[in-house]
Amino acid sequence: MAIFIPEIHAMESYTVQIQDQTYQVVQKGDDYLINDTFCRVDWIKTGENTYHLLLNNKSFTVEVAGEMSEEKKLILKVNGNEYTVIVKDRLDLLLEKLGMSRPSNYASGSLQAPMPGKVLKILVTEGQQVKQGDTLLILEAMKMENSIKAPGNGRIKKVAVKEGEAIEKGAVMIAFD
Question: Which of 47, 58, 82, 121 could be a cystine partner for 138, CB 3.0 to 4.6 Å?
């Protein structure tokens, strides 16, 4: 179950929902805490969509059978059994707690602020090509730094905010071509 988060940074916390069960996952280097239980995870990519996973010395073959990136949902086959997996990071959980969902905060061709906050850092420039999931800017909200990521592939048409600027929920931050 921990292979869905190989690119997260040390001490990042995630909620992983597999079918009807929810797990709290915290990565510490190559180690994971899953529902406060230490787990040693080792994995290797064996094909375009396949992985070999060792979880606490138990072997699993994992195939990514489908991906719905915007919903952060994966369809995985683990040792031949199919599972639906949803991964939520700190920002997803905060938005959910505030009664918002990430997809509804994206206007057509633009990225809107999911909450009021202060723009700490802008990581892109106008004309730059970005891929889905690339970090575009850092927004401070409720004393937490939140990485705002690209909702899809595209080119930055306009950066509508400035570093240090306070913005309201729904304000257009970035426009895409």
Answer: 121
